[in-house]
Structures
1.
Amino acid sequence: MPQQGGGRLVVEDVVIVGGLLLVQCVLAGYVVFVDQLMSLGAHPLAVIAVAGAAFAAFFLPLAVALERKRWPSKVSWTLVAQLVLIALGGTTVFQELMLLGIKKTTPAVASAMPNLSPGLIFVIAACFRLEKFDKGCKYTQAKMFGTLVCLVGAIAMSLLQQTSPSSPAAAGGGWILGCSYLVGAVVVLSLVTVLQAATLGGGFPAPLTMCCVTSAMGAAFTAALQVVVEGKLDMGSPKIDATLVAGIAILGGVLSGACIAFQTWCLGKKGPLFVSVFGPVQTVCSAILSAAILRQTLSRGSLAGILLMFTGLYLVLWAKRNEYETLPPHPQQQHAHAGDLEKAPLLS
């Protein structure tokens, strides 16, 4: 029996590692697909609305079946306000900034920027006293230094690619603006992640339901925004036909949602640090696909900036792992699931 149990654990580990690698490849493929949509003239707001609606429609029945017993008996105004903010920030604002950033940079850079989020989440959570912060602790110092290295890498990636004469994106004059959009998107994502974790730990322990509700709300908000701005609901270009719209729904809604659901399951099995380690794989896949399909390349200086970001990311993750192994949980984290804000699944 022990051997059978050990065999199951080995199989589970193989499934988790293989699945997380596949997840990053799928997400990288979607980023490259979105870059192609932007080049065809797709309206970012329309893309967000279609993807959000598809995610909610496909996964809501699953959320009802799996999490109905976890729903609160009474919905407070505080919970409604939290869901609205998560929908606006995590769906509309975050994705709009990401799509604008992808349009002006490359899929590889867009995939690299979210690696800033663990450090930014630490800073934001520490400000709200939801994360351990002891300036005399070497692990806190390591997290602060790792966050700084990530930021330096992001700045270097932006400036060094901009100064590369062989860079088509840089020649267009919008590279730094695009990187600014991406950094803004990561800041919004980090704020939303902290709010999402607080909501999950504050009486709404149903992550899939939350993602479905906020995605549906975000799709509605985004569609309404396009009507206000453009005067109509429109994909933005006659080149975006029904096949491409179906691709947005499948890749952006169903497959990306399945990736999020799988990552959430992995969080419960292995914890957030293990899952975060696979983040850079998406950047590598995006760079390979961009070079093979779109003929886009990165300068050596920009690659050096990405390496700095990865170094800072792993330094933050190393510090968090050792900190949680050696220090008692923060009092305000006792009620939270596993005491780590990064347990919360990221929004689609």
Note: The chain has a mean pLDDT of 82.
2.
Amino acid sequence: MVTNRAARPLTGMTGPCHPLAVTALSSGVRVWQDGHRLCADLGVTVRLSPGAAQTVTFRWNGRTSLGERVPAGRYRVTAGWFGFSASAVLAVP
């Protein structure tokens, strides 16, 4: 989620080609990524008024970029969007 905490509007681009990555915490190995490739990103301009928020979601199927199931463990999900990046840790049982 991006929240505009500034006193002026925030303008950025959104689209299907923004980077997403999943990294195993135990090894630091990036097991899956998307968005770091050639892409027909037409991009959509988003303008957030002061105090407004925009949320973007995605689903990861627990597989590597090669389609193999990842082992149980903790993984860091990193997303780049709107000129910002954020990350969260999730557990795969």
Note: The chain has no helices and eight strands.
3.
Amino acid sequence: MGYISMSLIAFLFVFASPVVLADDITPIPADKAQIESWFKANVQPLSARRGTLDPVLEAAEASPRIITVNQAGGGDFKTINAAIQSIPTGNTKRVIIKLAPGVYNEKVTVDVGRPFVTLMGKPGAETNLTFHGTAAKYGTVESATLIVWATNFVAANLHIKNTAPMPKPGTQGQALAMRINGDKAAFYNCKFYGFQDTLCDDRGNHFFKDCYIEGTYDFIFGRGASLYLNSQLHAVGEGLRVIAAHNRQSANEQNGYAFVHCKVTGVGTGIYLGRSWMSHPKVIYAYTEMSSVVNPTGWQENRQKEHDKTVFYGEYMCTGPGSHKEKRVAHTQDIDEKEANQFLTLGYIKGSSWLLPPPAF
């Protein structure tokens, strides 16, 4: 073996080692009043992040294109679908679609060939995307009002609704508001309305901030690796109601739902925080305020008892009458600070390479 200088070894070590950025390891603070300062410090705009983001994303954000949609006229298009179809397949630039307030009764799909799309409503105004798709007509995951396959999608200030009627207690009535199947997606100040299967948080890394999700049974489901921050989970209806049905199927999958500084509210009592749709669901609630709507057992009993050993149901420093853990199912993990921190940073969703704040309207 030839002689290698110590300086060369040091050079190789430094440049071969992965770079761990501060925003990947800085946990969300326990004090809810510090969320915004944490967000501004860790999710800075493009101007402060050059050289740290995915190079393809940086190139896409350099010169964004803006499209306006107004049903009353005066915009570039009158429908959301027309605006999306104007984006070329193989798109490489950020396209910001600004929507005038109103109700857009459309079934919208952002296909895989159109990444870097932003759908924006005007802050403080109601911009509603609605459709009445049902599983009976389209199939469960294709029933959504908004379906996103593309990467690097952003939505802000939108109300996304499935207007199909509430199914009667004890009957099936899947009707999705949204299905997110693209990686690196962010949702800011969005509201999702449905009943059974409201939000299909399906695949990829996702970030939800200041959002509202309403439903009855399994109203957040899929196998996403997702961080929900300062969001409200609201249960409606009667009968069996469950918030999260995570679809993790093995211990090797790097995914799960983390609800941090959220609020669990609703009508009645007896809602479950989650259930084992598949064998290895991973769901944690941290610093979350739980009203009395939550069933004292917390999590639905596993139909297959072997899942008791493979589920990961975590609760960390939650508050409110629904957070009392004396009657929780035995397989609830009362995680400590070290375990919780892995869910409390942007590293959980690999956010330092792609997550940006929403653009101004």
Note: The first helix runs from residue 6 to 16.
4.
Amino acid sequence: MVLPKGLARFNRVATNRVNKYVVNWAPGFGMIVHKGRKSGKEYRTPVNVFRTAEGYVVALTYGPDADWVKNVLAADGCTIVTRRKNQHVHGARLVHDESRQAMPTPVRQFLGLLNVHDFLLLKRD
């Protein structure tokens, strides 16, 4: 089970407007800057993102079918803004991991409660 689409719409309209100020400095948060596959328009999507040895891992709380995920996969990359730094990433790859091993332990447990098993892996340039 991933979070419902109705919650995603609410977050896009309300919560994300507040989150855009938090993601610049809060640990575990970041902003994915990506371009629309069809429109070419730039979008900014707040996400839960964590550093890995090779790059970053993003928890897909709304599942792998979210538009922003499709945009990043189509472009094979994006820019992640985290801790007030911009990092271009590439090699976007979807991973289904029931054990959520790429996540820190407390986050792993919380995502388990939400039944989140899909992640996006991104490599640093």
Note: The domain at 5-124 is CATH 2.30.110.10 (Pnp Oxidase; Chain A).
